Amino acid sequence: xxxxxxxxxxxxxxxxxxxxxxxxxxxxxxxxxxxxxxxxxxxxxxxxxxxxxxxxxxxxxxxxxxxxxxxxxxxxxxxxxxxxxxxxxxxxxxxxxxxxxxxxxxxxxxxxxxxxxxxxxxxxxxxxxxxxxxxxxxxxxxxxxxxxxxxxxxxxxxxxxxxxxxxxxxxxxxxxxxxxxxxxxxxxxxxxxxxxxxxxxxxxx
Length: 205
Prior knowledge:
Layout: E1 3-8, E2 15-20, E3 23-29, H1 30-35, H2 46-71, H3 76-85, H4 90-102, H5 108-122, H6 127-136, H7 141-151, H8 154-169, H9 177-190, H10 195-201
Antiparallel strand pairs: 1-2, 2-3
Protein backbone atom coordinates (compact mmCIF):
# COMPACT_ATOMS: atom_id res chain seq x y z
CA UNK A 1 0.00 0.00 0.00
CA UNK A 2 1.30 3.44 -0.93
CA UNK A 3 0.80 6.75 0.91
CA UNK A 4 -0.88 9.03 -1.62
CA UNK A 5 -1.62 12.01 0.60
CA UNK A 6 -0.88 13.36 4.08
CA UNK A 7 -3.01 16.30 5.19
CA UNK A 8 -3.55 18.25 8.40
CA UNK A 9 -6.97 17.71 9.96
CA UNK A 10 -9.21 20.78 10.06
CA UNK A 11 -10.28 20.34 13.69
CA UNK A 12 -6.83 19.46 15.07
CA UNK A 13 -3.69 20.94 13.54
CA UNK A 14 -1.55 18.40 15.39
CA UNK A 15 -3.26 15.43 13.75
CA UNK A 16 -2.91 14.22 10.18
CA UNK A 17 -5.08 12.20 7.81
CA UNK A 18 -3.18 9.44 6.05
CA UNK A 19 -4.43 8.32 2.62
CA UNK A 20 -3.39 4.98 1.16
CA UNK A 21 -3.89 4.20 -2.54
CA UNK A 22 -6.14 7.23 -2.92
CA UNK A 23 -8.47 6.58 0.06
CA UNK A 24 -8.45 7.80 3.66
CA UNK A 25 -6.96 5.07 5.87
CA UNK A 26 -6.36 6.45 9.38
CA UNK A 27 -5.29 9.45 11.42
CA UNK A 28 -2.00 9.99 13.24
CA UNK A 29 -0.70 12.67 15.58
CA UNK A 30 2.22 14.84 14.49
CA UNK A 31 4.63 13.00 16.82
CA UNK A 32 3.85 9.70 15.10
CA UNK A 33 4.23 11.13 11.61
CA UNK A 34 7.64 12.58 12.56
CA UNK A 35 8.83 9.43 14.32
CA UNK A 36 8.17 7.27 11.27
CA UNK A 37 9.22 9.97 8.80
CA UNK A 38 6.12 9.45 6.71
CA UNK A 39 6.02 10.97 3.22
CA UNK A 40 3.87 10.54 0.16
CA UNK A 41 4.83 7.56 -2.02
CA UNK A 42 6.09 5.60 1.03
CA UNK A 43 5.08 1.95 0.94
CA UNK A 44 3.40 0.49 4.06
CA UNK A 45 2.41 -3.04 4.96
CA UNK A 46 -0.16 -4.17 7.54
CA UNK A 47 2.51 -4.85 10.18
CA UNK A 48 3.97 -1.35 9.91
CA UNK A 49 0.51 0.24 9.97
CA UNK A 50 -0.41 -1.70 13.12
CA UNK A 51 2.85 -0.64 14.78
CA UNK A 52 2.33 3.02 13.94
CA UNK A 53 -1.27 3.09 15.08
CA UNK A 54 -0.40 1.44 18.42
CA UNK A 55 2.45 3.90 18.93
CA UNK A 56 0.06 6.76 18.14
CA UNK A 57 -2.63 5.45 20.50
CA UNK A 58 -0.09 4.93 23.28
CA UNK A 59 1.22 8.49 22.88
CA UNK A 60 -2.26 9.96 22.93
CA UNK A 61 -3.31 7.86 25.92
CA UNK A 62 -0.14 8.72 27.82
CA UNK A 63 -0.69 12.45 27.36
CA UNK A 64 -4.31 12.08 28.46
CA UNK A 65 -3.16 10.16 31.55
CA UNK A 66 -0.55 12.74 32.53
CA UNK A 67 -3.11 15.51 32.15
CA UNK A 68 -5.65 13.61 34.26
CA UNK A 69 -3.10 12.90 37.00
CA UNK A 70 -1.79 16.47 37.03
CA UNK A 71 -5.11 17.80 38.33
CA UNK A 72 -5.07 15.68 41.49
CA UNK A 73 -4.03 12.14 42.61
CA UNK A 74 -6.07 9.33 41.10
CA UNK A 75 -6.54 5.63 41.73
CA UNK A 76 -5.76 3.07 39.05
CA UNK A 77 -9.49 2.39 38.59
CA UNK A 78 -10.22 6.09 38.00
CA UNK A 79 -7.46 6.34 35.40
CA UNK A 80 -8.59 3.21 33.58
CA UNK A 81 -12.13 4.60 33.42
CA UNK A 82 -10.84 7.89 32.02
CA UNK A 83 -8.76 6.19 29.33
CA UNK A 84 -11.68 3.98 28.32
CA UNK A 85 -13.73 7.16 27.86
CA UNK A 86 -10.97 8.30 25.49
CA UNK A 87 -11.52 5.10 23.48
CA UNK A 88 -8.08 3.70 24.37
CA UNK A 89 -7.88 -0.08 23.90
CA UNK A 90 -7.40 -2.43 26.86
CA UNK A 91 -3.93 -3.50 25.71
CA UNK A 92 -2.68 0.08 25.42
CA UNK A 93 -4.25 0.96 28.79
CA UNK A 94 -2.30 -1.88 30.39
CA UNK A 95 0.93 -0.56 28.85
CA UNK A 96 0.20 2.98 30.06
CA UNK A 97 -0.62 1.79 33.58
CA UNK A 98 2.60 -0.23 33.70
CA UNK A 99 4.64 2.80 32.61
CA UNK A 100 3.02 5.19 35.09
CA UNK A 101 3.49 2.75 37.98
CA UNK A 102 7.19 2.44 37.12
CA UNK A 103 7.45 6.22 37.00
CA UNK A 104 5.66 6.47 40.39
CA UNK A 105 2.92 8.65 38.93
CA UNK A 106 0.38 6.00 39.84
CA UNK A 107 0.43 4.23 43.20
CA UNK A 108 -2.76 3.02 44.87
CA UNK A 109 -1.01 2.68 48.24
CA UNK A 110 0.03 6.34 48.28
CA UNK A 111 -3.32 7.36 46.82
CA UNK A 112 -5.32 5.50 49.47
CA UNK A 113 -3.39 7.14 52.33
CA UNK A 114 -3.69 10.61 50.76
CA UNK A 115 -7.40 10.17 50.06
CA UNK A 116 -8.07 9.02 53.62
CA UNK A 117 -6.15 11.93 55.15
CA UNK A 118 -8.00 14.45 52.97
CA UNK A 119 -11.36 12.95 53.87
CA UNK A 120 -10.69 13.00 57.59
CA UNK A 121 -9.40 16.56 57.58
CA UNK A 122 -12.38 17.97 55.66
CA UNK A 123 -15.41 15.98 56.81
CA UNK A 124 -14.75 13.36 59.50
CA UNK A 125 -16.21 9.96 58.71
CA UNK A 126 -16.07 6.61 60.47
CA UNK A 127 -13.77 3.74 59.58
CA UNK A 128 -16.68 1.82 58.06
CA UNK A 129 -17.56 4.60 55.61
CA UNK A 130 -13.87 5.27 54.89
CA UNK A 131 -13.49 1.65 53.78
CA UNK A 132 -16.53 1.96 51.53
CA UNK A 133 -15.22 5.18 49.95
CA UNK A 134 -11.84 3.59 49.20
CA UNK A 135 -13.57 0.54 47.75
CA UNK A 136 -15.56 2.79 45.42
CA UNK A 137 -12.25 4.20 44.19
CA UNK A 138 -11.21 0.70 43.18
CA UNK A 139 -8.66 0.13 45.92
CA UNK A 140 -7.87 -3.52 46.68
CA UNK A 141 -9.61 -4.88 49.80
CA UNK A 142 -6.36 -5.93 51.53
CA UNK A 143 -4.80 -2.54 50.81
CA UNK A 144 -7.88 -0.82 52.24
CA UNK A 145 -7.59 -2.79 55.48
CA UNK A 146 -3.87 -2.04 55.74
CA UNK A 147 -4.40 1.67 55.04
CA UNK A 148 -7.12 1.97 57.67
CA UNK A 149 -5.15 0.02 60.28
CA UNK A 150 -2.01 2.09 59.73
CA UNK A 151 -3.61 5.53 59.45
CA UNK A 152 -6.97 5.48 61.23
CA UNK A 153 -6.90 3.85 64.65
CA UNK A 154 -10.00 3.15 66.72
CA UNK A 155 -8.85 5.78 69.23
CA UNK A 156 -8.62 8.38 66.48
CA UNK A 157 -12.06 7.38 65.24
CA UNK A 158 -13.48 7.86 68.74
CA UNK A 159 -11.81 11.27 68.98
CA UNK A 160 -13.25 12.43 65.64
CA UNK A 161 -16.69 11.10 66.47
CA UNK A 162 -16.64 12.95 69.79
CA UNK A 163 -15.69 16.26 68.14
CA UNK A 164 -18.33 15.77 65.48
CA UNK A 165 -20.95 15.11 68.12
CA UNK A 166 -20.02 18.23 70.09
CA UNK A 167 -20.94 20.34 67.05
CA UNK A 168 -24.04 18.35 66.16
CA UNK A 169 -25.53 18.34 69.66
CA UNK A 170 -25.73 22.13 69.60
CA UNK A 171 -28.13 21.89 66.65
CA UNK A 172 -30.43 19.25 68.16
CA UNK A 173 -33.51 20.87 69.72
CA UNK A 174 -35.31 17.82 71.14
CA UNK A 175 -36.55 18.43 74.69
CA UNK A 176 -36.75 14.75 75.51
CA UNK A 177 -33.21 13.44 76.33
CA UNK A 178 -33.99 10.00 74.89
CA UNK A 179 -35.13 11.45 71.55
CA UNK A 180 -32.10 13.68 71.41
CA UNK A 181 -29.70 10.81 72.10
CA UNK A 182 -31.44 8.66 69.49
CA UNK A 183 -31.08 11.38 66.86
CA UNK A 184 -27.41 11.84 67.71
CA UNK A 185 -26.84 8.09 67.54
CA UNK A 186 -28.41 7.87 64.08
CA UNK A 187 -26.32 10.82 62.94
CA UNK A 188 -23.05 9.13 63.87
CA UNK A 189 -24.11 5.91 62.17
CA UNK A 190 -24.96 7.88 59.02
CA UNK A 191 -21.41 9.26 59.04
CA UNK A 192 -19.96 5.77 58.91
CA UNK A 193 -19.11 5.27 62.57
CA UNK A 194 -19.91 1.78 63.82
CA UNK A 195 -22.46 1.02 66.54
CA UNK A 196 -19.82 0.46 69.21
CA UNK A 197 -18.10 3.79 68.60
CA UNK A 198 -21.40 5.67 68.50
CA UNK A 199 -22.42 3.99 71.74
CA UNK A 200 -19.15 4.94 73.45
CA UNK A 201 -19.43 8.57 72.39
CA UNK A 202 -23.02 8.83 73.63
CA UNK A 203 -22.35 6.66 76.69
CA UNK A 204 -24.99 4.11 75.67
CA UNK A 205 -24.52 0.81 77.51
